[in-house]
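Notebook entry, structure prediction.
Reason for the run: the old model in the group folder had no record of what sequence produced it. Starting over properly, with the input documented here first.
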Amino acid sequence: MTKKASLVGFNQFLYFLIALFGIMYLGRSFLIPLAIGCLFAMLLIPACRWLERRKFSRFAAAAACVFSLVLVLIGVLTLLTQQIVSLNNDLSNLHEHFYGFASSVQDQVEETFGIAKDEQKAYLADQMDKVAEVVGSYAAFFVAQFGSFLVHLVIIITYTLLLLVYRGRIKNFVLKLVEKHTGQGQSDHTRKVVHEVANVSNAYVAGVFYVVAILSVCNTVALYAIGVEHAVLFGILAGLLNIIPYLGSLVGSLIPVIYVLLTKDAFSYAIIVGGYFLLIQQVESYVLTPNITGGKIKLSPLFTILIVLFGNLIWGIAGMVLFVPLLGIAKVIFDHVPQLEPYGYLIAKK
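New structure, fully documented this time:
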């Protein structure tokens, strides 16, 4: 009977996972804005509490925090848009530098492998046409989706505001639900666990955003000091991509390195930029993240990469960004619930 009960429990767990992932995939258009709204709400909770202690009503405090968030988002998007337009205006110069760089490479290829320049130019022109076609299709796609983006942004802001206003009711609902299954005798322990999970999760999510902001500023200042054009765009982009562990930091550092290779005559610029990003990643890993997000939430590199790939499978690019902090929140819950501690141990770094 024991083996049969264990098998039934395991089958029920598998069915639960299949149903959960199926709902997450089919309901992604609804769940992605809600998940982003939850993360923004967690980010704003400390500021909201600060205003409430100064006699602001809950709605007024939430509205002020959300309005400040909207101003920051508008400022960042405006700055990035200006930088992208400026980069687009410089594409002609980039085109000349690229062909100058390609010409030197062609000389080396012809000398080393005996492939004539005409053959190389024909192949290169064909590849450039394909790249231009792909870039054009993506540009048209983003333009077409801009209206949809604005609609989703309004929905996310609305979710954020309502979650801040009704966060007390949601927390009480979770407490009542947990107490119903654990019994009234565990009421004090349940409240303590829920409060700890909420506080640590809020601090973790806020810490992730703080690290992104610090890295964006440091990247921008460093790239500007090195002499890289469009330092603001590459600095903020590298900081935002850092939300995606390992893969994001790699892509965020490669983009400015490749740009410098194509625009600077001296190879030393690319070495300096690459060396800077290597250094800042060490600072982020051993100084910023442990001290800002806290040492308790250290995710295993294996499960971090797995959750990034799984997030891409379920929710696309949004999943790659959202699933890592969601896994961090899940680890906090695992660590504070005795029955789930093995799962927290499994996904922990140490």
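Summary: The mean pLDDT is 79.
The old model has been moved to the deprecated folder.
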